C-alpha cells in the first residue's frame, strides 16, 4: 500500500450510466448480454474470486445466475467494451478454481475494475436488505430503477443513502522514525488473545455538522485531545452497512493528557513511526498485558491514512 494515492475501495473503472436506470426496455435487453456479479448476503456479502496469485472477481452470464427470490438484477454500469454489468444477491454458484471471499478480505488486492464493482454491489445489496418496508406506511417495497430505488404500493419512492463518517490519523507533526501518531482500541471490538488492534479515530458526521467539525468533536469526545491543522486525505465507501469514510490527518500535542471515553475507546496511546513500521513488517510491538499491536485491515481507509503518515505525507494547509 505504501505510495498509493487512492484509498483501496475508492478505485473504479465502471461507467455508471445512470441515465439507463429509468429505461426498463434497455435494462431488459442489457440483462440478456450482461456480466453478472453474484454475491450472497446470507454469507456476509461474499462473492466468488478466482484462485491464483492475485484474486479476481468471477462474473457470470445471466443464464448462470442461481434461481433465488433475492436475485433481483441491480444495474451497476457499463464497461469500456460496452458490456453492461449487473449484480444479484443469491447463493454463490459452484465453479471450479474459485473460492468465496469478502470485500474486507480481498478489496485491496483486486484490480481497480473489480474493486469498484464489488464495493458498489455490496453497498447496494446492503441498502436493499435494510429497506424492504416503507418507513411511512410499513408496506413492503420492491426494487425499481435497475436496483437504484425502492417503491411502495402507494408510489412512495426511496433512493439509497450513504451515511457520512469521518476518520482521522492524529499525529504530532514530527518527521522521522520518532514522530508519533495517536491510535485507539475501540471498546466494542472483539478481543483476541495476545493481540490488540489499534486504529484511527472515527465517528459519524451529525446533522448540521461539517466533516471538519466532526473531526474536532469526535477526537475531543473519544480521547480528550484538541487537534489542529486538519488535512483532507481522501474518501472511500465502507458498505458495512453503508458509510462514506472521509479521511483526514490532524496535528495534536502528545504532551496533552489522553482521557478516553470508556464507552467508546478501551485503550489509546501514541505510537512512533518506528513502532508502526515494525508492526507492518510483522514484528511484535508490545502494547501491554502481553498483547502485541495489530493495525487496521488493508482494505480500510484507516490503514491508508497510516501509510500516508508513515511515508511523511502531510500537506501544508490548515482549516
What does this protein structure show overall?
- By secondary structure, this protein is α+β, with helices and mostly antiparallel strands.
- It has two domains: 18-158, Alpha-Beta Complex (Nucleoside Triphosphate Pyrophosphohydrolase), CATH 3.90.79; 163-310, Alpha-Beta Complex (Nucleoside Triphosphate Pyrophosphohydrolase), CATH 3.90.79.10.
- The chain is 19% helix and 29% strand.
- It has six helices and 18 strands.
- It has helices spanning 24-32, 103-106, 112-129, 211-223, 273-280, 301-310, and strands at 35-40, 46-50, 56-57, 74-78, 84-89, 98-101, 142-144, 149-151, 157-158, 163-171, 180-186, 195-197, 201-204, 228-238, 243-251, 265-272, 286-288, 291-294.
- The strands form four sheets. Strands 1, 2, 3, 4, 5 and 6 form a six-stranded mixed sheet that branches.
- A hairpin with a 2-residue loop joins strand 17 (286-288) and strand 18.
- The longest helix has 18 residues, at 112-129.
- The protein is globular and about 65 Å long.
- 37% of the residues are buried.
- Residues 314-319 have low confidence and may be disordered.
Amino acid at each position: 500500500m505504501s505510495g498509493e494515492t487512492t484509498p483501496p475501495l475508492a478505485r473504479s473503472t465502471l461507467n455508471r450510466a445512470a441515465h439507463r436506470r429509468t429505461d426498463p426496455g434497455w435494462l431488459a435487453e442489457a440483462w440478456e448480454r450482461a456480466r453478472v456479479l453474484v454475491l450472497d448476503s446470507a454469507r456476509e456479502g461474499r462473492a466468488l474470486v478466482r484462485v491464483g496469485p492475485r484474486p479476481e472477481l468471477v462474473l457470470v452470464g445471466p443464464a448462470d445466475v442461481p434461481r433465488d427470490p433475492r436475485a433481483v438484477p441491480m444495474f451497476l454500469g457499463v464497461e469500456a467494451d460496452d458490456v453492461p454489468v449487473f449484480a444479484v444477491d443469491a447463493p454463490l454458484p459452484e465453479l471450479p478454481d474459485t473460492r468465496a471471499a469478502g470485500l474486507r478480505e480481498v478489496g485491496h488486492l483486486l484490480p481497480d475494475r473489480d474493486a469498484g464493482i464489488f464495493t458498489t454491489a455490496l453497498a447496494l445489496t446492503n441498502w436493499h436488505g435494510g429497506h424492504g418496508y416503507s418507513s411511512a406506511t410499513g408496506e413492503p417495497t420492491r426494487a425499481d430503477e435497475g436496483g437504484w430505488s425502492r417503491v411502495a404500493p402507494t408510489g412512495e419512492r426511496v433512493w439509497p443513502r450513504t451515511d457520512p463518517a469521518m476518520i482521522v490519523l492524529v499525529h504530532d507533526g514530527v518527521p522521522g522514525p520518532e514522530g508519533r501518531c495517536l491510535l485507539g482500541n475501540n471498546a466494542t471490538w472483539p478481543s483476541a488473545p495476545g493481540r490488540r488492534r489499534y486504529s484511527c479515530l472515527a465517528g459519524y458526521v451529525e446533522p448540521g455538522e461539517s466533516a471538519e467539525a466532526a473531526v474536532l468533536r469526535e477526537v475531543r469526545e473519544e480521547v480528550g485531545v484538541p487537534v489542529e491543522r486538519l488535512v483532507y486525505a481522501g474518501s472511500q465507501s465502507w458498505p458495512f452497512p453503508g458509510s462514506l469514510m472521509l479521511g483526514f490527518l490532524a496535528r495534536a500535542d502528545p504532551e496533552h493528557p489522553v482521557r478516553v471515553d470508556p464507552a467508546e475507546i478501551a485503550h489509546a496511546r501514541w505510537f512512533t513511526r518506528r513502532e508502526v513500521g515494525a508492526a507492518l513488517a510483522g514484528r511484535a510491538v508490545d502494547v501491554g498485558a502481553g498483547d502485541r499491536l495489530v493495525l487496521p485491515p488493508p482494505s480500510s481507509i484507516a490503514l491508508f491514512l497510516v501509510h500516508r503518515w508513515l511515508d511523511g505525507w502531510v500537506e501544508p494547509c490548515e482549516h
